[in-house]
Amino acid sequence: MARKNLGEAKQLFQKRKYQDVIRILEPQVFAFRDSFPFYYLLGLSCFFQQDKSGAYSYLHRANQLDENNINILLGLAVIHLRRRNQDEALKIWLKIKDMDPQNKTAARGLELLRRGLDDAGLDELFSTEKVRSIYPPEAFRFPLVPVLSGAVVCAIAVLLVFFIPALISMLNPLILPEIPEGRKDVESVQVPSGTAYVESAGQERITFTEYEAQAVFDEAKRLFLEYRDNRGVVQCNRLINSNASRTLKEFARRLKSVARTPGFKDFLNFPDNYTYEEVVDSPYLYDGCFVIWRGTVANLQIRTMEIGFQFLKGSWDNKVFDGNIPVIFHEATKLENDYYIELLGKVVTSGNSFSLEGVLQRRIIPDSP
C-alpha cells in the first residue's frame, strides 16, 4: 500500500497537483523515513505550495539522504534566501555551479546576490513572480526511473556480462556480510594504571569504594562497546556524581561524549529507553540520555534559530498526563500546537529539573499504533 501511494504521488507530482501529493504522503512520513524519492516529492510539493515549514523540513531530510541533488539544493537556497540567510544561499548556489557550471538558475541566484539585496529588496522579490526565476524547475520528469536508449542498454549489458563478475570478486572482501568495525572512540578511553579511582567522600550523591568505582567505569565501557550507549551514559553519570577521583570523572566525561545520537530507525526499536518517572525521580542520572516519549505540543514558539514548545507527556486524549517538559529543536521541524507526537529527545539537566533537546519527532494520528 505504501509503495502504491508513492507511485500515485509521483504521477500527481508530474501533473503539478502538489496539494494532493502532500495529502497522500504526509501521513506516511514514518513508513518512508529513509526514502529519498519520498522526501523529494513531499519537500518540493510543500515548496511549490508555499508551505515554508514543511518545505524546509522535508527538503532538509532529502538533502541528508542525497546531498548532491540539484533540485533539492535549489529549493533550499530559496528557503534560506527567504529567511534572510544570504550566506547559506550563496554557499548552495556556488556548490551547484561547481557540480553544474551551466546551471542558469544558480547563476541567476548568484547574480541577485552580486547586485545586493537588502530586506526591502528581498520583500519585493518574494512578493512578485520574479522569484520563480530562482525556483527549482517544475517542468521535468521525476528522475526515479531514467529512460535509456538502446545503445545505452547494450553497453550496460556488456558491462554486466564481462565486468561485473570480476568486479564483485575483487570487491567481495569489502561488501557483504556487513560487520561492525568496532568503536575505536570507546577503546581509546583508557585509564592509566596507578590512577586513584576515588577520593574522600564529601557531599556527593553517590559513594563508591575503589573497587566499585573501577567496576562502574568498566561496565560503562562495556556497554558502549556493545552499542548500548544510553545505559553507558547512566554509568558515567553515576561516576560524575560520586566521590570518584577527578581523573576518573574526566575519563567518564570523555566516555559519555562518544554517545551516538539515535535516528529514525530507533522509533521502531529503542530497547534502552527510560520512562518519564525514572528521569523525573533522578534527573542527574539521565543527563545526556535519549528518550522516546509521546505527548502533545503546547505553547509552540518559532524563533529565528530554534523552535520551542511545552511537551505535555501523556495520552492523546489527555486521560493520562505525566508532566510538562520544555523542549527545544535547533533544526526546523514541522509542528503545530495540539499535535500529538512521538518525540526523540536528549535529556538536559539543570539542577533538579530537566528539559529535552529535540532530535526527531513524528506526528501520531489518534488510534494509530
Descriptive key words:
single chain; 369 residues; alpha+beta; Serine Threonine Protein Phosphatase 5, Tetratricopeptide repeat; OB fold (Dihydrolipoamide Acetyltransferase, E2P); 3 domains; 5-stranded mixed β-barrel; 45% helix; elongated
Please explain how this structure is put together.
The protein is α+β, with helices and mostly antiparallel strands and 369 residues long. The protein folds into three domains: 2-134, Tetratricopeptide repeat domain (Serine Threonine Protein Phosphatase 5, Tetratricopeptide repeat); 185-256; 269-363, OB fold (Dihydrolipoamide Acetyltransferase, E2P), CATH 2.40.50. It is built from 14 helices and five strands. A five-stranded mixed barrel has the order 1-2-3-5-4. Helix 1 runs antiparallel to helix 2 and helix 3 packs antiparallel against helix 4 (52-65). The longest helix has 22 residues, at 150-171. It is elongated and about 70 Å long. 30% of the residues are buried.
Short description:
The chain is an alpha+beta fold.
Question: What is the ordering of alpha helices and beta strands?
Answer: HHHHHHHHHHHHHHEEEEE
Number of helices: 14
Provide the structure class.
alpha+beta
Report the portion of residues in β strands: 5-15%
Provide the CATH superfamily of the largest domain: Tetratricopeptide repeat domain
Tell the overall outline: elongated
Whole-number radius of gyration? Answer: 25 Å
Strand order of the largest sheet: 1-2-3-5-4
So what's the CATH class of the largest domain?
Mainly Alpha
At the fold tier of CATH, the topology name of the largest domain is Serine Threonine Protein Phosphatase 5, Tetratricopeptide repeat
Biggest sheet architecture: 5 strands, mixed, barrel
**Cα end-to-end separation:** 17 Å
Low-confidence stretches: 141-149, 164-181
Average pLDDT confidence is 84
Number of domains: 3
Compute the number of strand runs.
5
Tell me what the CATH architecture of the largest domain is.
Alpha Horseshoe
Name the helicity range. Answer: 40-55%
